[in-house]
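U., I forgot to send this yesterday:
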Amino acid sequence: MSLQNDLGQKVKDAVKELYQVELPTVEFQPTRKDFEGDVTVVVFPMLRFVKGNPVQIGTQIGEYLQKNVAEVAKCNVVQGFLNIVIEDSYYLNFFNSIKAEVDYGYVKTPSTDAIMVEYSSPNTNKPLHLGHIRNNLLGYSVAEILKASGKKVYKTQIINDRGIHICKSMLAWQKFGEGETPESSDLKGDHLVGKYYVAFDKAYKEQIAELVDDGMDKEKAEKEAPILLEAQEMLRKWEAGDVEVVSLWKKMNSWVYAGFDTTYKNMGVDFDKLYYESDTYLLGRDVVKEGLEKGVFFKKKDGSVWIDLTDDGLDEKIVLRSDGTAVYMTQDIGTAIQRVTDFPDINGMVYTVGNEQDYHFKVLFLILKKLGYSWAEQLYHLSYGMVDLPSGKMKSREGTVVDADDLIQNMEETAETISAELGKLEGYSEEEKKVLYRTIGLGALKYYILKVDPKKRILFNPEESVDFQGNTGPFIQYTYARIQSILRKAEDVRSSAVETSLKLHEKEKELLKGIQLFPETVQLAAENFSPALIANYTYDLVKEFNSFYQQVSILGEPDAQKKQFRVQLSQKVGEVIQSAFRLLGIDVPERM
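Result:
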């Protein structure tokens, strides 16, 4: 049981003994910096149950706690706030209990129920872009946080590898490619295919302009441009299993997958299971038929099938067209059910998808609940806002979006420029510098994106993100490297227990309180699907360590016991930083 839980029960005991009242809850908050104390009991909510002066009530409860709780050193009351000072021995006992614990803060035994986290889910007609970076970083981090909180997790994506947009790239390559391959062009496969998607769009617009010049209405021209009709015919052939079209589709998709794999590796994300839309687009139709029989869906006169969600505050939604073909909703229904068939221990799913799809997921989750699936109660849309760049910062290959590969490379170059200006890399080999630039650049990118609440839109500034001061990844990485330097200089980081009679410096106690919050923060981040809670916790811990470092001598401390404790404390802070950053997918360098 945590100290706060124990204190809460003792406060309830105090109120029962002093006032003969059963208190349902006790409200705690951290003690304000300008008052003496480690934790504060808020007295005001108790006035609904206990009549009297809040200062007097707080004073009496404080006296009770000092007599009955060994960890309570003293108390003071400021208006309706009971500030409690905790004995140093409590924090030192806590430190002794966790200082040798590997992966402190992580739950070691996962639950039997699993959760599947979906992220990335790109189209195979172009490279991953800036939006995919936020998607991947969020999804991967949430999956890691859920694992650390004790969940069994499967990481997945559904690859959109079929449809008219895919055929556009294929057709343009046939027409204009002259047999070009990733090898012959020295282009990543996804960039090569994306190049022909752009080429299709260019040719399409030119044909529209020609038809309009010849007197055709623009709306009609957009539908009857010859290259679009050819792409539609190619899609029909693909759906019919035409050997030549399917062969081309497999070849060009294989180029894209190889390109994606390189980007994922560079980004530091991975997956346990891949789903492909070409395999799933027919799923769900049988489920709709079953739903019709159960009365979940209804059929209109034209034969199309719908669900009426007006009683749920939504509207009517089509799930099957009049010709019997599926819509995206049908496919998503079928895919969700298929995932539980593939992994029977799944009892929930997280969908990492931009906020423009908020309505879609409200409908999807509601339909699955109405179909009677128990796991549908544990579905979550990890909705996120757009990422913008300051204008003119980077040019993309296509001129409209920023490719993920370009941004990652730009971050490495930005880290190199800023690191060179700071002049802190004496004695590094060129290879060591290259690895460090990558670690700093990617750390800056990931932290800048993940420290923000997922629902908020982000303006991402590459130079600002690589600042070595403030709430940035490099600032935290630099502090970790500083701790490693301390440990290298310490002659001996002994593992023996710290004497609990040691008198703590205020800064030591603040650090211990910060370390104590890590397991709770992991659980809170998991419950809220929010890497931002981990990121900002880490920043607060690092600020506290730097304040400790500035005000308390570590290696220069003449008292051997104090020096040993401060070195061990620094080591544990470093371990917590590393564990927290691992949940964000960020590496920490041993030297900077």
